[in-house]
Amino acid sequence: MTNIAQKMDAPIIDQAALSTEILSAFCKAAGDPLRLEILRVLRHNAYGVLELSELFGVKQSGMSHHLKVLFNAGLVATRREGNTIFYRRSPLPTNNQLLELHRNLIATVDQLTLPTDLQQRINETNRVRTEASRAFFQQNAEKFQANQDLIASYEDYGDIVTQFLDATSCDKKTVLEVGPGEGGFLPSLSQRFDQVIALDTSDEMIHRSRDIVSEHQLTNIALIHGDTSVALTQNIKANCITLNMVLHHIPNPPQFFEELEQLLAEGGSLLVTDLCHHDQSWARESCGDLWLGFEPEDLSNWASIAGFNEGESLYLAQRNGFQIQLREFFKQSKH
């Protein structure tokens, strides 16, 4: 299928020949301890300049310089989210003579152990993102549906998600829905699985899901207030995990994929419905979005790193310039 989502900005490196200037820029970028730690921190998440400045205790001007050096060497890429530019590690290059050097550098960087105080600051940054998202839903529960409908209502994609669900070959024993919102998908899940577990960080959304459970007299639904860390402590193993318009509210999507992999049973299916990357920053204020959608390859990369295999994909054109991606991933059975 044609991918019309916007791409992350990355420097163009000459594919034909490896010049001393290109090699020198790469070695310069890799020759500074702070820049190596920045690459390590960017392994699992994207951060803005101010966030990185606070994480490392470096002035914004200094951090901008280091990021420019990394960008010019092709080691980081940028993406604009509203008024903020986020940095993440570049994917490995294809067809250029820096490929092996790039691959080996990243493999070595990933063996670095981050200082305890730096890891604590990273955790705090992610916690602040989570709390901001949670506070938004608590304060805007009454207009949640109206705001969501500005982008994509459940009616726009619900039937197709259900078709994806029916086509999966996973056992229909236990399904975990992360972020059920107002509970619109719960009746469909209840009909198809022996047990449904709905997990949400918002008290208000759990309350609204409970109303749906009561209204439809659903007897196989368990509602849990909390995030994936809570589900992990309860040793949940689902045959299927589904999340609809949830990922763009998650502070650390790559880590989230790793947690979902731990919650999914062997041979299970992960179904993700979310927005492709867009530039409509009003979604932050109106809908509490942390991220303005995602590139399809972002989801593919995070899922692959977490241990998933990729299944079917479908892209839906949406009103107001948004595009929805429906993605299917599998956890291979070891037997």
Q: Just give the CATH class of the largest domain.
A: Alpha Beta
The N- to C-terminal Cα distance equals: 32 Å
CATH topology of the largest domain: Rossmann fold
Overall geometry: globular
Estimated helix fraction: 40-55%
* Structural class category: alpha/beta
The number of helices is 14
CATH architecture of the largest domain: 3-Layer(aba) Sandwich
Strand/helix succession: HHEHHEEHHHHEHEHEHEHEHHEE
Sheet with the most strands, sense and barrel status:
7 strands, mixed
Give start-end ranges of low-pLDDT stretches: 1-7, 12-16
With strands numbered from the N-terminus, the spatial order across the biggest sheet is 6-5-4-7-8-10-9
Kindly report the average pLDDT value: 83
- How much of the sequence lies in strands comes to 15-25%
Determine Rg (CA atoms, Å). 21 Å
Going by CATH, the homologous superfamily of the largest domain would be Vaccinia Virus protein VP39
Secondary structure tally: strands:
10
The number of distinct structural domains comes to: 2
